[in-house]
Write a structure and sequence with these properties.
Order of helices and strands: HHHH
Length: about 140
């Protein structure tokens, strides 16, 4: 067994050098300068312009933010009444209220949706048992 390992070590050094040189040669071939397309090649059709969504009306966005914050407050109250309110849901609601006060409707919408989602998850968690008992073997 010892003789085979010495032979392998003796052969692996030149083999590693050859593989390294081969990888450098292959990498050198891969970095060629781009060539200009031939004139005889048919030009690709012009891409169609992408339709962008119309800019949202700031007043409509503010009204949507107010409605979502009101919905989040309702969801938070429902979760609090059933003792299923998560602290992250409350933090998201406070952030949504602060964003609404600062006239940042986009942030208020995002945080209100997060608060509603977390409040719903807290209510869904009530369906699961509070503690799962593992069976213990008696000594």
């Amino acid at each position: 067994m010892l003789e085979r390992s010495r032979i392998w070590v003796a052969l692996s050094r030149p083999l590693a050098g050859a593989l390294g040189a081969l990888s450098i040669a292959i990498a050198g071939c891969a970095t060629t300068a781009p060539q200009e397309p031939a004139d005889s090649v048919a030009a690709a059709p012009a891409p169609t312009p992408v339709k962008q969504a119309p800019a949202a009306d700031p007043r409509a966005l503010a009204e949507e933010a107010k409605a979502l914050v009101a919905q989040a407050e309702t969801d938070i109250q429902r979760a609090r009444a059933r003792r299923a309110l998560w602290s992250k849901a409350w933090e998201a609601l406070v952030g949504a209220r602060a964003s609404l006060a600062a006239d940042d409707a986009a942030s208020a919408i995002r945080q209100a949706r997060r608060a509603s989602e977390l409040a719903q998850l807290g209510l869904e968690q009530l369906a699961y048992p509070a503690v799962q008992h593992a069976s213990r073997s008696s000594p």
